Amino acid sequence: MTATTIQEQPLVRVDMMAAPLNPADVMCIHGRYPSPFGSSSREAFAASLRASPLFSSSSSGRTVAGSEGWGRIVEIVGGASASSDANYSLDLKEGDCVVPGVPGMGTMRSSLWLPANNVVPLSRGSELLDKGDPTAVAPLFQTAGTALRMLEDFVDLQRGDIVVQNAGNSAVGLMASQLVSSNGVKTVSLVRRGDRSTSQYDELVEYLTVTGKNVAVFAEEDLTNDSASFRSCLEHVREMGQAPPRLALNAVGGVSSSLLLNMLGDSGTMVTYGGMSQQPIQVKTTQFIFRDKRLVGYWHSRWMAQQSSIEERVAMMDRLVSLVLDASLQCPPVKSFHLSEFQAALEFEANQSNQAIRRKVVFDCREH
Ligand SMILES: NC(=O)c1ccc[n+]([C@@H]2O[C@H](COP(=O)([O-])OP(=O)(O)OC[C@H]3O[C@@H](n4cnc5c(N)ncnc54)[C@H](OP(=O)(O)O)[C@@H]3O)[C@@H](O)[C@H]2O)c1
Fold first, then answer.
1. pTM surpassing 0.90?
2. 142-190, pLDDT tens digit by residue?
3. pLDDT digits (tens, 9 = 90+) for 206-238
4. CB-defined site of ligand 1, < 6 Å
5. Mean pLDDT of all residues belonging to the chain
6. Which of 276, 299, 330, 352 to mutate to test the pocket of ligand 1 (most atoms within 8 A of CB)?
7. Phi, psi of 188 (to 5 degrees)
């Protein structure tokens, strides 16, 4: 991505409708999150945008948080019809619903300019809008995209297979368990009991079973503190599928990832996509040598920025939107805040772990 490329492209102004607050955004604010382009090309990209005459009058020079969200094109400069890729014409037009396709461009604002090849148009966006509140579906684009890619790009899952995951109540986890269930694949989730009361925990399990379509949910604490419970969980899981789990999704690390690895069958793959515990993954040598287990990582920002074509991004977003429109996929419940309420939003987010069911914080970016 060079400065010349950006300057030569049409630019689109997107009025943002909604932008979720994800763990990565909080890490970005703390300066602990990398750029999918590498720091030098990201800097070059940002500098090139700032150099555009369009920005000199409107940019405050501040960095804006946010990677996920959706909005509508309100202006196109540099061509009535914006082709967003040399080989692929998207025919963008004003009024189109789009997803900013470049991670980290700052979605938590009312309006932003983007090069045309950095937006992903949603062909059924207006139908999604007709469903009502645009904040309700804002976690669909990156969050469900992450889940989908991890389920489809590492293991060829077959009907009857089992996927195990931790953070089963996270937004990504909730999307993952729903997405595989439609193909006859079963999900077993680990969650933290944490500070939840018994009734809150029961409510969570019910939610993850009914809405999340998990076949079983276990509290990590029960399995970690009692080896008999872990053995019985293992037996239970292995009886459920035609074979031991072939795929594990790890968002936590530490002890939680060891539980997942022990649940995974021989030659199974654990995809790590988050490190919520901030603890390293510990793997016994035997898991590699005698059990042939595979450890890989997944970063959706890299897939969006470098590893996918515009056609693949458009197809994936359209597929996710269709799943929501035909009610096969539910987004996690959201709690919306106006952009000016960022302090309250961060406080709400910091206190989610003692709630029965998490709600994704989403900024309503529309100017009211
Ligand atoms: N690699 C990628 O491309 C990619 C893309 C999207 C997300 N992610 C990562 O995926 C993870 C989940 O994201 P999300 O948006 O789905 O999350 P979310 O909806 O905000 O939920 C956070 C999850 O993390 C758990 N958690 C929080 N603090 C924890 C701790 N100290 N130890 C263990 N678990 C903890 C929460 O459990 P409680 O409810 O018990 O607090 C909850 O299950 C994050 O690490 C995020 O950075 C990665």
1. yes
2. 999 999 999 999 999 999 999 999 999 999 999 999 999 989 999 999 9
3. 999 999 999 999 999 999 988 999 999 999 998
4. 22-24, 143, 146, 167, 169-172, 192, 194, 251-252, 273-274, 276-277, 298-301, 353, 358, 360
5. 89
6. 276
7. -115, 125
**Tens digit of each residue's pLDDT (9 = 90 or more) over 281-333:** 999 999 999 999 999 999 999 999 999 999 999 999 999 999 999 999 999 99
The ligand 1 atom nearest the CA atom of 27 = 47
Atom of ligand 1 nearest to the CA of 273: 1
Q: Measured in angstroms, how far is the CA atom of residue 251 from the centroid of ligand 1?
A: 6
Distance of CA 67 from the midpoint of ligand 1 (Å): 15
Tell how far the Cα of 167 is from the centroid of ligand 1, in angstroms: 6
Ligand 1, atom 17: nearest CA belongs to which residue? 170
CB atoms under 10 Å from CB of 88, counted, come to 12
Confidence of residue 368 (pLDDT cuts 50, 70, 90): confident
